[in-house]
């Protein structure tokens, strides 16, 4: 039930944000995503803080796999302060089949998937030619993630991504790095492993 509520909050907020785009320039997704290359495990390098990830303190990953119905399964995992892992399973469908760079994602239960508001925009707005990193955003600029195939990213690449994101209307000052390779110890203090 908790996963449903968190997923519902994400979808509802993303739906509201699409109405509040105002004077932002039109957001463009990358021209093409090869889904076979996009599948697999991604490490969250950084993000805009959001309510549905507030329990996460590090080791956040997203793993994509192909489903038989042509959609993608999304498994998000993160480490919580108490040392346990939290997992949320979602589904993604391709919103733009010519480019594969615009997805609709839901974490709500399948029996309400017919409701449009449970599907949130999830656009690939920057992508390394070798698929070593991907940047995700949505037209309202309320959500933003930097993902990579490795748990660490060199600072030069990270800064270049932030500069490109800023030119698209995202705010680098809101971006928060995600710790990877951490564990919890007594008192909720984090250590790198």
Written account of the structure:
By secondary structure, the chain is of the alpha+beta class. The protein has one domain: Lipocalin (Beta Barrel), CATH 2.40.128.20. Helix content is 18%, strand content 36%. It contains 3 helices and 11 strands; from the N terminus they run ααββββββββαβββ. The protein has an 8-stranded antiparallel beta barrel with strand order 1-2-3-4-5-6-7-8. The protein has a two-stranded antiparallel ribbon with strand order 10-11. Strand 2 and strand 3 form a beta hairpin. The N terminus is likely disordered.
List the helices and strands and how they pair.
Layout: H1 2-19, H2 35-38, E1 40-47, E2 56-66, E3 72-80, E4 85-94, E5 102-106, E6 120-127, E7 133-137, E8 144-148, H3 155-167, E9 176-177, E10 182-184, E11 190-192
Antiparallel strand pairs: 1-2, 1-8, 1-9, 2-3, 3-4, 4-5, 5-6, 6-7, 7-8, 10-11
- The termini sit apart by 32 Å
CATH architecture: Beta Barrel
Largest sheet, if any? Answer: 8 strands, antiparallel, barrel
Rg, Cα atoms, Å: 16 Å
Helix content class: 10-25%
CATH class membership: Mainly Beta
Number of domains: 1
Strand content: 35-45%
- Overall body shape: globular
The ordered string of helix (H) and strand (E) elements is HHEEEEEEEEHEEE
Helix segment count?
Answer: 3
Mean pLDDT: 85
Low-pLDDT parts are 1-21
Strands, total number? 11
Spatial strand arrangement across the major sheet: 1-2-3-4-5-6-7-8
The name of the CATH topology is Lipocalin
Class computed from helices, strands and strand pairing: alpha+beta
